[in-house]
Amino acid sequence: MPKLTVHDAKGKKVGTYTIEPTDLAPRINKQLLHDAVVMYQANKRQGSHQTKTRAKVSGTTKKLYRQKGTGNARAGSRRSGIRRGGGHIHAIRNRDYSYSLPRKALQLAARMAIASKVRDGELTLIDKLEFDEPKTKDMVGILQHLGCSDESLLIATSGNVPNVYKSARNIQDVSVSPAAELNALSVLSSRRLLITPEALDQIKARASGGQDSETKGAGS
């Protein structure tokens, strides 16, 4: 089984971590990953776009000129959709783009995304990530030692660690998330994933539990 190197804050090797992509997901389904990412992106849309119909355009409703006898085609209101400055005939209205996929499918997609990071060598392990107080300079130093400072990065912790979040929030292209809140979009949006062994243990534990339940459901 492949072994990942565990680094300390100075970038030195302090151990190894054994993991297979199949420990997180039986296989990597690109269609499921695509569906999950599109759903998360759709749910982030405001849907507040709107154009005016002729009823919402300000202006008189007076007929432009009499119906007959002018030699011109008949014309109604200046707010008509066929006239410049008039309303839109097929107006765009406010819309809610959000929808949801099954919870288990989204959980599996998140594990697939992490498994793809393991497979592609885009996952870095750090033995622990702790700060006595928020310090962006210290976080920058750690990322430089680990070789993670030149690309987009997602830092996954075992729980909510305010000092880690506050130390990284002002660094460009760096985001922080507890392992329990990772999803396919957040994982795939970053080039590299920095995670602690404790957080990875949590993900593996949930993966084994989910796979067991899926196996039982298939056999029943």
List descriptors.
220 residues, alpha/beta, 6 strands, 35% helix, disordered C terminus
Report on this structure.
The protein has 220 residues and is an alpha/beta fold. Helix content is 35%, strand content 13%. It contains six helices and six strands. A six-stranded mixed beta sheet has the order 2-1-3-6-4-5. Helix 4 links the parallel strand 4 and strand 5. Helix 3 packs across helix 4. It is elongated. The C terminus is likely disordered.
Helical region count? 6
Strand content: 5-15%
Radius of gyration from the CA trace? 27 Å
Task: Identify the overall geometry.
Answer: elongated
N-C termini distance: 32 Å
Category from helices, strands and their pairing: alpha/beta
Number of strands: 6
Q: What are the segments in which pLDDT stays under 50 over at least 5 consecutive residues?
A: 212-220
| pLDDT averaged over residues | 90
Q: What can be said about the biggest beta sheet? A: 6 strands, mixed
Helix content: 25-40%
Order of helices and strands: EEHHEHEHEHEH
Reading side by side through the largest sheet, how are the strands ordered? 2-1-3-6-4-5
